[in-house]
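The passage that follows is intended for readers who have already worked through the single-chain material. We present the inputs for a multi-component assembly, then the predicted structure in tokenized form, and finally a short commentary. You are encouraged to pause after the input and sketch how you expect the pieces to fit together before reading on.
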Amino acid sequence: MDSTNSDGVPLRATARDAFKIVIVGGFGVGKTTMVGSVSEIRPLSTEEIMTRAGVGIDDPTAVADKNTTTVAFDFGRITLDAERVLYLFGAPGQQRFWFLWDQLFGGSLGAVVLVDVRRLAESFYAIDRLEHHGMPFIVAVNRFDGPRPPLDRVRAALDLQPRVPLIECDARERDSCKTVLIDLVEHLASLHAPETTP
Amino acid sequence: MSGLAREDPDRLFVVTAGRADAAGPVLDLVSLIVGGVDAPPGTPSEHARILRLCRYHPSSVAELSAHLRTPVSVLKVLLRDLARTGLVAVRAPESARAPDRLPDLETLRQVLVGLHEL
Ligand SMILES: Nc1nc2c(ncn2[C@@H]2O[C@H](COP(=O)(O)OP(=O)(O)OP(=O)(O)O)[C@@H](O)[C@H]2O)c(=O)[nH]1
Ligand SMILES: [Mg+2]
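Having made your guess, compare it with the prediction:
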């Protein structure tokens, strides 16, 4: 397991500039599914140490300390060209996971908030925190079976700013996930333009 | 706890103890680690495992952490050891977004081109 890259597709020797995009959402909302749909490697899982108080630590020697625990998160990878590679991280949106943003996800290009309309309230906290962190994001509603409220109702319920894109997706479909990522990056580009008054 | 740590937490403590803030490059979750050499004799096994994983191609901190089943911040201590002694080189993510800034347009354009080609 550790002497070969068992998931095939090693990084190219010329890879030199890596980007991060984070997919954040509540439990079971489809984060891992989305990562897996567009990743060139099988999603990998890893972990980071946090204290029981819910903050990250600078001192990994505290690993032997009873006051620390680990949280797991998963990720995938997309080679963009000979030099650039994009990593997609799936991150739980609950409060106790947010130290990951300070510790690991800083410098991300942006974020996708993945939403299950049956459990909208689970997204409030994530949206709040992203705004607080100054992390640009779009919101993607994952299509599960069941009633589908119109997007303007979802927008109102989430109290989304008009400028934040809200789209639907199917986390199981590669093309749909690809569109989500493209929409995020186009949104990031559009933020460079001065805000137009409606 | 898993991987190195599960095998022997005390051992992990010993390899990283007291060196949490040891000198070495700043490492990001997606810094790319470039090896290319075999572990010199006497290399601690934890470090040797890393050198094997990036022997033939670069690997990100995140991927090394996953393959070695070692928490990211613990892995970073080991990587800084290797970088200090010149056994690995680090390619930092140059185009990471600065706090309160947008990613630059050229970066975004290149990401878009790559995504469209998927
Ligand atoms: N119908 C439907 N099911 C989906 C969709 N996306 C994901 N699922 C299913 O929903 C379940 C949860 O998906 P995951 O990708 O594991 O969700 P997650 O957000 O990673 O979950 P946690 O990591 O446990 O928080 C899985 O059984 C998926 O197959 C979707 O678009 N439609
Ligand atoms: Mg998951």
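Commentary: The radius of gyration of chain B is 16 Å. Chain B has a mean pLDDT of 86. How closely did your sketch match?
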